[in-house]
Write a structure and sequence with these properties.
Length: 442
């Protein structure tokens, strides 16, 4: 089968061998759990519990407060200890519900019960996904029930399951494709039931041949589902790139995937859809890759949302040496953690904890641009980063917009290949925020 791909991109050190061959382990939290009300794009959820309340596993503790918002459910049973501002992975503070775990794990009535999606209406399926608080778990955190409710169901031709996992070091989706492929296929079937004319495509990079083989065999007799191998290249898993690689269709920053007849969901999101609809279970767990050359025993863990990253790292044996950098997520698009004690909670969009002995970014001193053009060749959006940087350095929002700077989605490819070690992506991120702030004021 022909490999899907795109023009541009890079081939960074993968680092996946550290954790890819180890089965996922479940860990249970020891102390209190912290649930931020913002674990998604859109308006924060509104607490629907009070201090002193007893809660059960799966109980809704935060309710979606706007059209673009998502419910938050408790992953343990216990007592609401506080509702207060707590530090998040970004370094900012946000409203959180703090629950003291009673270690009983008593569930809400009906949780885990089998349910036949074929006997449910489309509205009932979408509502089940909404109530479960399912969001995009590839990093963006867009509420899934909204993504699965476009203006015209019949305009959707493709449901793409994004199993590329192109970010270096991350292996959580890979492990799920090997360990729970039936749930991926089950979740995809649920989504396909919402779109009568759509074809399901499971897109996987070709550095995961065993996952490709396993899922291909499982969908042999499925008329509406196929597996599409993709060329291994970063950022192959970006929404625009996976759409183009699988369908040949293009989208830009002013478009949604639905405008190109596509719905794109991450592997773990599709599993969450299956659990919400077919097992009456809300999104209360996250598969987290704990890895890096500073980690004693890199591994993938099944972690209850709200668990402290400190506990997750302890489950991996802690640190074997002092890291120069700790990142929540992958090295290309992750966020360097503000709190060195790691006393911040795992949320729905938290895919990894990466601990590195050397901070390559801090170790490099930027110099003047030598006009080599490598950034242009690497850019998956076909932009001209060297010109964008000129406008960024001048703080020229209009010029930045005029050369399509807003099409940048901050993948980091340009910074990675720059021999002058210029912090291009960071500058573009600041410019994009400046432009968006200016537009909001207007």
């Amino acid at each position: 089968m022909k490999l899907g791909t795109f023009k541009g991109g890079i081939h960074p050190f993968e680092g996946k061998d550290l954790s890819k061959d180890l089965p996922v382990k479940e860990i249970l939290p020891k102390g209190e759990l912290v649930y931020p009300m913002s674990q998604h794009i859109g308006a924060p959820a509104t607490p629907v519990v009070s201090v002193g309340d007893k809660v059960l596993v799966g109980q809704k503790i935060g309710e979606a407060s706007g059209f673009v918002s998502a419910n938050i459910c408790s992953s343990v049973s216990g007592t609401v200890k506080a509702i207060e501002e707590r530090r998040l992975t970004s370094g900012a503070k946000g409203k959180c519900i703090v629950i003291e775990n009673d270690n009983q794990y008593k569930t809400i009535p009906g949780m885990g019960k089998d349910r036949d999606y074929k006997k449910m209406s489309k509205e009932e399926i979408r509502n089940a996904i909404k109530e479960a608080g399912v969001v995009g778990m590839g990093g963006a955190g867009f509420p899934t029930h909204i993504k699965l409710a476009p203006k015209d169901d019949n305009a959707i031709d493709y449901i793409l399951v994004n199993g590329a996992e192109c970010e270096p070091y991350l292996t959580s989706d890979y492990r799920m494709m090997l360990e729970e492929p039936e749930k991926i296929i089950g979740g995809l079937k649920v989504i396909l039931s919402l779109f009568d004319k759509a074809q399901g495509v499971i897109a996987i990079e070709d550095n995961k041949p065993d996952a490709i083989e396993k899922l291909t065999k499982l969908v042999e007799k499925e008329d509406r589902i196929k597996v599409q191998p993709l060329k291994t290249k970063y950022p192959q898993g970006a929404e625009r790139q996976v759409i183009y690689a699988c369908t040949g269709r293009k989208i830009n920053s002013s478009m949604l995937p639905a405008d190109a007849g596509c719905v794109v969901d991450n592997v773990d999101t599709v599993i969450a859809v299956y659990m919400a609809v077919c097992k009456c279970t809300p999104l209360i767990r996250r598969i987290v890759t704990v890895t890096g050359d500073a980690v004693a025993t890199p591994c993938n863990f099944n972690v209850k949302t709200g668990t402290s990253y400190k506990e997750v790292l302890e489950a991996a044996g802690g640190l074997k040496c002092e890291p120069e950098k700790i990142v929540c997520g992958g090295p290309m698009m992750g966020v360097a953690l503000f709190d060195p004690e790691l006393d911040v909670p795992v949320v729905k969009t938290g895919s990894a904890l990466l601990c590195l002995t050397k901070d390559e970014v801090a170790a490099s001193e930027p110099s003047a641009c030598i006009r080599c053009g490598r950034c242009v060749s690497a850019c998956p959006s076909h932009l001209v980063p060297v010109k964008m940087m000129e406008y960024a350095e001048r703080g020229d929002n209009d010029g930045f917009v005029a050369i399509n700077g807003m099409e940048c989605y901050e993948c980091g490819s340009c910074t990675y290949v720059c021999p002058a070690k210029r912090q291009l992506t960071q500058a573009f991120k600041q410019m994009r925020r400046s432009v968006m702030d200016s537009r909001r004021k207007k």
